[in-house]
Amino acid sequence: MLRFIVRRLLQLIPILLGLSILLFAWLRALPGGPALAALGERATPQRIAEYNEAFGLNEPVYVQYLKFLGRAVQLDFGTSARTGQSVTSEFFLRFPGTIELTLFAMAFAIGVGIPLGYLAAKKHGGFVDNASVIGSLLGVTIPVFFLAYLLRLVFAVELGWLPGSGRQDVRIDATHITNFYVLDGLLTREWDAAWDALTHLVLPGVALGTIPLAIIVRITRAAVLDVVNEDYVRTANAKGLATTTVRNRHVVRNALLPVSTTIGLQTGLLLSGAVLTETVFAFGGVGSALRQAISDRDYALLQGFILILAVVYVLVNLLVDVSYGLLDPRVRTR
Amino acid sequence: MSAPTAAPAAAPGGRRREKIDELAARAGALSAGAGGESLFRSAVRRLRRDPVAIIGAVIVVVFLVVAILAPFLAPRDPYAQTLLSEVRQGSIPGAREGFPLGVDQLGRDVLSRLIVGSRQSLVIGVVSTVLGAAVGMVLGILAGGLGGRVDTIVMRFVDILLSIPGLLMAISVSVLLGANQLSLMIAIAVTQVPVFARLLRGSMLVQRDSDYALAARALGVKRRKIVLGHVLPNSLSPVIVQATLSLATAIIEAAALSFLGLGDPDISRPEWGAMLASAQSVLSVRPELAVYPALCIIVVALGFTLLGESLREALDPKFRR
After folding, report:
1. What's A94-159 look like in SS3?
2. pLDDT digits (tens, 9 = 90+) for A36-47
3. Touching check for B180 and chain A: CB below 8 Å?
4. Inter-chain residue contact A143 with B276, CB threshold 8 Å
5. Do residue A153 and residue B294 have CB atoms under 8 angstroms apart?
6. Which residue of B44, B145, B148, B215 has the lowest C-beta tally within 10 Å?
């Protein structure tokens, strides 16, 4: 198992290097290049020349790349042209919100998706089955931000049941230790603050969770259908085991293997893909910042955020691979 | 999995890779083991009996006809702000005689804009898919046809592309090339490239080990001719399926990029994604303005998805009777 993990870690190196080269080249390929990225749109030619001199941009490209890499390893991606803050601190200020949102969305997707997928497979060809197949097709074709609009319009604007923007009511004077607002509320025993932060997660979480929900229903259904036809399930039934035992020990356990992979992968995607949902709900996580950076042409922030998010995505994938190795011993030897 | 799997070991991002390879291998198993009826004839036979495929095909055909004939079908000029004088703060004229779906916040006929907008979606979907598939296939042919060191280098590059989440990749490319139609299509195409490359490579690896390829090699046929004339044509079915599915993704992604302000800078041009994005500001006044273009996107994406999925099943030897 250790060898398996080490091998996976080693395979990560070329990918991370490749990523860094791509994003290094990306910033240089922009009209104006890194100086413009750092100084913003309205930089004068003279200031650009000064900047190029000061930051070694007149040196050979490979020297520049190595320096970039050196800074990237120390998580130094320069400063945001809009706020003047360091890109890294901007990122870590906002990332907890995105993590909370992702966890909520995945909890929703898993909590609804697995039982629904199981039911659909159990009643194969029945109403639940057909409805879930159609529903999961709709789930992947509906543009996420449209769903977010609708949810916001109905539940926040018209009915007023749930908050429709932000991470917490501005009137609440909450203490923030970790920037995970729900967790902060629990830690400081400010229950109303925690509850308020949680209600702010519901609408964006549901919108964000629909795609993983659709995929989880589909995979669970297919996996259960595969497993119930296996010989060992027939054997278990034939030797007279109780239905619940067969279900829990033989069917669900084996069917959940492919589902767990999907869950891991989708979590990785959501951490990076909340741009659309966060924008609609003005959520204040990483996604909203990316959206803002696109319209501000804040290239330093875009570069840093995209690089960090890609690394997070790769690491989550690695975690999925490793956990798959733990769950299913057959994978390790490949 | 009876067919040989092409991937060596999975690296990070590996599940997605493995899934692509699995699809390739499964499709590859079929032409090797098939006898009697030709592959495509039996696929067409099954498609014609599959109600899901028929629904998908009908949606796609209607969409194509509307898009191609759009200028003749649209009842009004999609650019003319006919009812602008009746648009007030907090009130936009709804459906009425001559305007079956009402007008938008600039007084333009919504139905005409939807009809003409279908063209943009078609162009974006087709161009970006063709572009992504073409580049991906060249990489796939290089990797799967030449093998060895070329394979390793190309696949490492593809793995790097796969390690960036699709939307982030599309955003980076769009920002780099500037907000316009062409860069939108290129951005979507770039996200498709690694999928097509891996798919074709996997499928070609399976074909390369087949008996007919061996026979051709034994007869002294040149490698280029074996790869391009024998292996490639037999490896194309998963690519065709993927292209159908990619059309759906491309249309949805185009809407997302438009929403993020990375679409066509000419916002007067009718396009579903842009219509949906601009409707946000008047959502509480007339939500229908968002609902109509969204429904168009959903239905068309659904059509291509249904068609693609049933095509996959029809081409899958597991379901062959």
Report:
1. HHHHHHHHHHHHHHHHHHHHHHHHHHHHHCCCCHHHHHHHHHHHHHHHCCHHHHHHHHHHHHHHHC
2. 766 766 777 787
3. no
4. yes
5. no
6. B148
